[in-house]
Amino acid sequence: MFYHTKRLQFEAKPEQPDPVYAHKLQELIGGAWGEMTVTMRYLFQGWNCRMEGKYKDMLMDIATEEMGHVEMLATMVARLLEGAPSDKTTAAAENDPVMGAIIGGMDPQQAIVGGGGATPSDSNGYPWNGRYVIASGNLLADFRSNVTAESQGRLQTARLYHMTDDPGVKNMLKFNLARDTMHQNQWLAAIEELKADGVEDTVVPNELFDEEYREHASTLWHLSDGDSSQEGRWASGTAPDGDHEFSFVSNPEPLGGPASAPKPPEHLYGTTW
Amino acid sequence: MFYHTKRLQFEAKPEQPDPVYAHKLQELIGGAWGEMTVTMRYLFQGWNCRMEGKYKDMLMDIATEEMGHVEMLATMVARLLEGAPSDKTTAAAENDPVMGAIIGGMDPQQAIVGGGGATPSDSNGYPWNGRYVIASGNLLADFRSNVTAESQGRLQTARLYHMTDDPGVKNMLKFNLARDTMHQNQWLAAIEELKADGVEDTVVPNELFDEEYREHASTLWHLSDGDSSQEGRWASGTAPDGDHEFSFVSNPEPLGGPASAPKPPEHLYGTTW
Amino acid sequence: MFYHTKRLQFEAKPEQPDPVYAHKLQELIGGAWGEMTVTMRYLFQGWNCRMEGKYKDMLMDIATEEMGHVEMLATMVARLLEGAPSDKTTAAAENDPVMGAIIGGMDPQQAIVGGGGATPSDSNGYPWNGRYVIASGNLLADFRSNVTAESQGRLQTARLYHMTDDPGVKNMLKFNLARDTMHQNQWLAAIEELKADGVEDTVVPNELFDEEYREHASTLWHLSDGDSSQEGRWASGTAPDGDHEFSFVSNPEPLGGPASAPKPPEHLYGTTW
Amino acid sequence: MFYHTKRLQFEAKPEQPDPVYAHKLQELIGGAWGEMTVTMRYLFQGWNCRMEGKYKDMLMDIATEEMGHVEMLATMVARLLEGAPSDKTTAAAENDPVMGAIIGGMDPQQAIVGGGGATPSDSNGYPWNGRYVIASGNLLADFRSNVTAESQGRLQTARLYHMTDDPGVKNMLKFNLARDTMHQNQWLAAIEELKADGVEDTVVPNELFDEEYREHASTLWHLSDGDSSQEGRWASGTAPDGDHEFSFVSNPEPLGGPASAPKPPEHLYGTTW
Amino acid sequence: MFYHTKRLQFEAKPEQPDPVYAHKLQELIGGAWGEMTVTMRYLFQGWNCRMEGKYKDMLMDIATEEMGHVEMLATMVARLLEGAPSDKTTAAAENDPVMGAIIGGMDPQQAIVGGGGATPSDSNGYPWNGRYVIASGNLLADFRSNVTAESQGRLQTARLYHMTDDPGVKNMLKFNLARDTMHQNQWLAAIEELKADGVEDTVVPNELFDEEYREHASTLWHLSDGDSSQEGRWASGTAPDGDHEFSFVSNPEPLGGPASAPKPPEHLYGTTW
Amino acid sequence: MFYHTKRLQFEAKPEQPDPVYAHKLQELIGGAWGEMTVTMRYLFQGWNCRMEGKYKDMLMDIATEEMGHVEMLATMVARLLEGAPSDKTTAAAENDPVMGAIIGGMDPQQAIVGGGGATPSDSNGYPWNGRYVIASGNLLADFRSNVTAESQGRLQTARLYHMTDDPGVKNMLKFNLARDTMHQNQWLAAIEELKADGVEDTVVPNELFDEEYREHASTLWHLSDGDSSQEGRWASGTAPDGDHEFSFVSNPEPLGGPASAPKPPEHLYGTTW
Lengths: 273, 273, 273, 273, 273, 273
Ligand SMILES: [Ca+2]
Ligand SMILES: [Ca+2]
Ligand SMILES: [Ca+2]
Ligand SMILES: [Ca+2]
Ligand SMILES: [Ca+2]
Ligand SMILES: [Ca+2]
Known about the structure:
The structure is a homohexamer of 273-residue chains.
Chain A: E1 2-4, H1 19-30, H2 35-48, H3 54-80, H4 90-95, H5 97-105, H6 108-112, H7 139-161, H8 167-196, E2 219-221, E3 237-238, E4 245-249
Parallel strand pairs in A: 2-4
Antiparallel strand pairs in A: 3-4
Bound molecules: calcium ion (6 copies).
C-alpha cells in the first residue's frame, strides 16, 4: 500500500514558461525510457520478486521514488505551459513569426486534451505502454534491463539539459541527473551482489550449459564485410563468463538446409502447384 | 546492402507438428525480446554508429546473423503447423477433448491470417513494434541494452526449451541457447573494450558530473518499509564508478514544495475557483 | 443497414485554408474523444443492446448521426488544406519565416500519406483504435461513458473554437457545440429514464451488495497528506445511492499481509535463494 | 512524493492456484478499465488540478489507494500461478485433456515473459497504454469519466466474481466490489459538490451557450427507423440542464451542401480529371 | 449524412451458439482486413476523392454497404455467444474437459468487457486501428489497395467457412463470400475504367519518368541464391507498363559508398573517438 | 541466412543537412508503406511460400533488396541531421525565427532518443508495427498487396521528391522512384504469371463459387444518393473474372431481419427488462 505527500521530492519550478520545451520534456515522462517506465518496471519487478529481503526491499524503495519523478516532471510541464498561446490563431502567428514558431513547436494535445498539462505520452505524442515493462522474475536479467533504463534515461536527460537555459529547469535536471547516476551505480552494485551471494552468475539463466551446443557458444560469425570486427575483445581470448574462448569465423557457411515450408491444410487455400 | 542464401544458419526441423507450441514460439519471433527486436536494434545501432571500425563492423556482423534467426523461427513455426486442425469445427472438438484443447491453445491468426505460417507478433498476438528498438548513438548505453536483450532472450528460450519434448525443436533451441550465451559474452566484452579504449566509462553519459548535484548522486532513499534494503552492496561502500560513496537515507523527507500547478489560459476551460 | 446522402448534416466551409488548424482538428476526428469514438461506441452499444425499444432505437439514431460528424470534419480538413505548402522546401521556408512556421505546424502525413486529406488519427498523429470503444451491455455503465465522451468532446471543441478566427470554421463549430450540448443532456436524461423505468439504479451493477464487504463500501482512505479531502460532500453524510453513510479514515492502516509471491516452477528460472 | 508499506491494503490469497483464472484477472490490472487506468488517471488529474484544496486532496487520496489495488491484483496473480503447468508439453496435455484445457486457457506471456507473474496487460495480452488516461483540467468532465471508470470496473469485477469458486479470491473481490461502490458514490458526490460550490454546472464546459446554435442544442435527429426513440425522456420535456426543451425531428434533412473537396496541390498527384 | 434501418443487409442467425467460433469471427470485424477496415477505408477515400461523379459515388455506395457488414458480424457474434459459459469456473471445467476446451478457446474480453458481445478487435484481441486505412487521393493506388482488401477478406472468410458446420453461420458466409467476389471484380473494373478514362496509367503516380533513373527501372537484382527467380515473366520481356524491358542482374554489386554517418552534435553525447 | 556489405545499394549523400526534411523522410522508413513494411512483408511471404522455385526465389531477391533500402534511408537521415540545432534553446529560437521554424519542424525523438539518427517510426513518430505485414500463403492475394505497397510507396516518394531542392537527396530519390517503378511492374508481371501457370485465377481464393450465393456476387447496391455510380464499368457488362454480369440495384432493400441480440447470461449483468 502507498502513501503520498503533497511535497515534491525536489523542486520543479521554471523561471519562465516555455511551451516548446514542455513538448520535449514529455519524453522523460511517457517515453520508452522515461519515469513511467522505471516506475512500473520496478513495481512489477518488486511484486514479482520471489525472495524476501534486501533485493525486494530495494526494488520497492526505488520504485516508490520513481513515481515521485513522474510527479516532478508533470508539475514542471504544467508550469512551463503557463500562459502558453494555446488559443492563438494561425492568422495571429502569421503576423508574429516567433509566435508561429512556438505554436509549431508545441504539443497540440497538451492544450486540446490536457488543458495545459502533461500527458502520459512521449515527445512524439505516442502513449506510454505496458510493453516497456519487463519483470521476468530473474533478477540478473531484470537488473541488466534496469542499468540500461537508467543509462538511456540519464543520456536523454543530459540531451535535454542543453536544450534549455532556464535556471529553474536546469535546477531540477541537476537533481535528476544525480539520481540517474546513483541508480546506474545502484543496479551495477546489485549485479555484483547477486554474484557475491551466489544466486546468479554471468550468463542468464545460469543453466542449460550442458544442453546447449558448446561449439556455437563462443564464435563470432563474420557476416558483414567490415573487416575490423575481429579486432575486438569479443573475437578472441577468454569470454567474460570465464568459461569460453572467443573465436572468429571468418567465412561462415550456413549449417541448415533450405528454408522451405510444407504445404498447409487444403482449406487454408495457400498457393501450391 | 544485403545478400541472402536459401540455407538456414542452423536446422529447424521438428519431428512432429505441434500447433500449440507454434503459438508459444511466436514470443521469440515478434516479442519485445525476440529476434525481430535484436535484428532491428543492431541494424539501427550499426547504421547510427559514428565510429568506423571494430564496433560498427561487429554490430553489422551480429545484426545480419539475427535476421537469420527470424528466418529459422519462422520456418520452424510453419513446420510445426503442418496439418494443424485449422479447419476443425467446435462440434468436432466437442467429441474429441484433446482436439478441443489443441484448438483452444492455437493462435487463430496463424491459420486465418497467416495461412499456416508465422506472423510478426508475440505469443499473445500483439504485433512487434519499433519502440522495442533503441539506437541512441551512445555505445555504452546501447550495449547495455543489448546484454539485456540477450539475457531476456536466453531466459525465454530456456523456458520454452522445457515446454517441448520434440527432439527436432530441442535441436534448434540448443543452437539458439548457445548463440545467446555467445552474445551475452560478446556484449559484456564490448563494454569492457569501450572502457579499455577510453571512449566510455561507467556512468552514461560520461559528462555533467560537475553540473549534477553530487550530494544526491549516491543516496538510497528508503521509501518503502522493507528494512533490508540497507544491507545491500548499494547502500554503503564505494560505488562501481569508483567515484561515489553510497549512503542510506533512512527517513527521507521531500526537498521540494507542493506539487501545485498555475491556472491555465482562460480559453482552456479548466476548473478554477 | 445504412444509407447515405451526399449532403452534409451541416455546412463545413472555411473562408480560407489554414493547414496548421487542419492539423489540430484531427483531434476531433481520430482522438480518444473524437467523432470516430462516439460513432463506433454508439454503434457497438446499439448492436449490443439486449432490449428492443426506445434505448436501442435512440442509440442507433445518435450513432448514425455521429458518423455524419466524422464526414463533416473530414470535409473541413480537406478544405483547410487547399493549396497548403506541401511541396515547399526547407530552403524556401528559410527565406520566409511565416511559411517556415506554417510548415512546422503542419501534420506531415496529411500531405505525404493523405494527399491533402484527413487521416483517422489524432492531433499527434496517433491512429484511432478500438480500445476507445466500450459497449458493456450494461446501459447505465455505458450511458455514463457517453456523458463523459460528449463532455470531453464539447470541451475540446470549445478549446478549438478559440484557436481560429475563420467565420466558416466557427460556423461549423457552433453547430458541433450545440449537438454536444444536446447529447450531454440526452445521455443524462437517459440515465434518469433508466432509473425511472426501474431497470438500473445508482451503483453499477445493481447487484452483489450482500456479498461485498459493506464496511469498506463508504470509507474515504486518507492516503495523501493534503488535509482538505475530508471537507467534501464525499467524506460524510449520505451517499448518492441513499444506502451508505460516507466516513473518513484519517489514519488508514493496511489490512492485508505482505505482498509476497511464492516460488515459481523451477523451469522458469526465477531468482530464489 | 510517495511512501510504500509492504503490507497489502487487503488480503490477496487464493486457496488454490488457478492459472486459467490468473489469465482472466489480467483485465483488472491492465485493461482499459483496470486498476492501472484509475491509478494513472487520478494521478494525472490530481497533478493537473488547478485548485488547491478538497478536490485536489481527494484526487490524491484515491489515486494513492488505486496504486495499492494494482499491487493486490499482481500479488493475487502470482499466487494463482504457483505451480502452473508452464513447463508441460503438448504431448503431456494430449494424455490429459484437463491439463490440455488448462494450458489452452493460460496466458503464455505470464510464463514465458513474466516468469510466473502478472504483466501490465489486459486479458487478451494487449498492453495498458496512456490513451486510457484523461486529465483535461475540467473537473466535471473528468469526474464524469471517473464515475464511468468505477462503473465499468465494478461491472467487470462482478463478472469475474462468478468465474471462480475460490474463497480466497472471492474474499479479495468482495473488498474490491465494495471499494468500487464507494468510488462510484464518491465521484457522484463530487459532481454534486462541484455544482453546489458553483464552479461547474450541467453542460461541460459551462460556456459558449451564446455562441452555439441554440436551435440545434435540443433536437433528437431520427436517423434510424426504430420508431421508439421518441418515447424516451430525451425526446420531449425539459432537459437536465433546465435550460432546453427536448424535441424530436422525425424526418431530418441534411442542412449542408455536398461533401466535396477541392483539388489538392499538383505535386501530391491526386487523381483529378 | 447517413440513415440506418434496423434490418440487416442479410440474415445473421446461427442455429446454435458456438463461443469458440465467436472468438475466431472477430478477425472479420476488427482485423487488418476485416469489415471495419473496408468501411473506414472506403469512407475516407470517398471523402478524399477530388472528382465529382461516378468514382466518388461508387466509393460512397460501397462504403455504406460495408458498415452494414460490421453490423451483420456483430449481430452474429452476440448470437453465437448466447448462453456461453462465461460464468463457469476452472474447477467446473476440470470435471468437464469439453467445457474446459471451450473456455480455453473463448475470447475473455467478449465476456468480461463486452458482456457477451463483439468487440472492435481481431481474433487475437488486438484493437482495430486507423493505420489500416489508406486514402491517398490517388485513385489507382487506392483501388489497388481495395482489390487487396477484398482478396484478403474473401480468403479469410473462406478459411472461416470451413471452421464451422452451423447452417446459419454458413448461410451468412455464403452471402459474404459473394459480396467479396463482387467487390474484387468491382475494383478490378474500376482500375480498368481509370485507364479507359485516361486519368491513370500503369505506374503510380504517372509522373516523374524523366526524372527517375531509367536504367534502374526494370532490373531484377539477384540478391538471394535461389536460382529460379530469372525464370519468371518479371525477369525478361516487356513490362506490364509497355515501356520497359525487364532484365536480370545476376551478380549485383552495390553502387553506393559505405553506410557511414557523420558525428552528431557534441551535446548529444554520441560515442566517437 | 544473410550476408551484408558495408556499401549502400545506391548513394545517399545530401549536399547539405536539412533536419526538417529528415523528419518527413521518416515516413519512407517506418510508415505503413515504407521500406520496413516491404522488407518484412516480402521476407514473411518468402518464408511462407509453399512452392519451391521462381516465386519463392523472386520473393527472397526483392526482400533482400528492400532491407538495403531501409539502410539507405537511415543513412540519409543521419546525414541530413548533421549539425542539427538539437541543443538550441527556445530562447535562442526567439531571436531567430528561421531557427524557430526549423526546431518546430524537427522530430524531437531523432535528437533525444536517436542521438541524431533515424528511428523505426513514421513521420508522425508512430512506430512501425507488425500488422503492416501480410503473408497469407495465397500468392495472388499477397502479390496484390505488393503492387499496392509499391504504388503507395512510389506515390509518397514522389511527394517527398518535391519537398526538397537538395541535389544529393534528389539523386537518391531518383533511384528509389525507379526501383518502385520496377517493383510495380514486377508484381503485376508476377500476377500475370500466376494466371499463366494456372495456379491462381481472378477471384481470391479460386474456390467456393458453388457455395457462395451467386445472385449476390455481381450486384452494386446503390446505398448513397450520388447517382453517377451506375455509369461505371462496374455496374453493367461482364466482370473481369469473365464469369459474372454486373448489375445495379437502384433501390436496395435489406434482406435480413432486425439486428437484435439475445439476452446474455445472467451473471454478465447486461441491462434487460
Ligand atoms: Ca528517475
Ligand atoms: Ca538471436
Ligand atoms: Ca458528435
Ligand atoms: Ca480500484
Ligand atoms: Ca465486406
Ligand atoms: Ca523499396
